[in-house]
Amino acid sequence: MHELALADSVLKAALSAADDAGMDRIDRIVVKIGELQQIERELFEFSLTTVLPAMDDRLAGVQFDLSEELVRFECRSCGTDYGRNDAGIEGDGDQDEAIHFIPELSHAFARCPSCGSPDFEIRAGRGITLERIEGSSEDDPG
Ligand SMILES: [Zn+2]
């Protein structure tokens, strides 16, 4: 199950970051989900918030802050940084849907708003990012 594996790797990264920071407990995990990431969002959230935390004491009572990371393109011709709204993709519901399901299709639709080049890199909006964690150590006075 793709979503479970992704959720598992997010939590492993969070636990490893907690180790590095000397935290005994993680209170909050902030995760960004790229809008081009192909994922069953509900299943991912369920895996992340319900299935997996039971496996580690440090995650008892953890809160999740999940948000979508919007896609950002960078033009390879002129270096302009632009978003989906600037890329001429917005406005057609069917096209929008297709891009959500098939990220590679965004290559076929996006155009640089400055020079019109279809040659770009995707700088943000792909994949799952562990943004930060908040936690505490048992030695903490507060
Ligand atoms: Zn350009």
Which structural class best describes the helix and strand composition? alpha+beta
Shape verdict? elongated
Q: What is the alpha-carbon Rg in Å?
A: 18 Å
Report how far apart the termini are.
40 Å
Q: Oligomer, anyone?
A: single chain
Hetero groups: zinc ion
Second CATH tier, the architecture of the largest domain: 2-Layer Sandwich
Domain module count: 2
Helicity, as a percent range: 25-40%
The spatial strand order of the largest sheet comes to 2-1-6
Look up the CATH topology of the largest domain. Answer: hypothetical protein PF0899 fold
Strand runs, count: 6
- Main β-sheet description: 3 strands, mixed
Tell me the name of the CATH class of the largest domain: Alpha Beta
- The helix-strand sequence is HEHEEEHHEE
Number of helices: 4
Mean of residue pLDDT values: 86
Give me some keywords for this one.
alpha+beta; three-stranded mixed beta sheet; 4 helices; elongated; binds zinc ion
What this model shows, in words?
The model has no long low-confidence stretch (mean pLDDT 86). The chain has a three-stranded mixed sheet, with helices on one face. The protein has a three-stranded antiparallel sheet with strand order 4-3-5, with no helix packed on it. It is built from four helices and six strands. It has helices at 2-21, 41-51, 93-101, 106-109, and strands spanning 25-34, 63-69, 72-75, 81-83, 120-124, 128-136. Helices cover 31% and strands 27% of the residues. With 142 residues, the chain is an alpha+beta fold. It is elongated. Bound molecules: zinc ion. Zinc ion is lined by residues 75, 77-78, 80, 112, 114-115, 117.
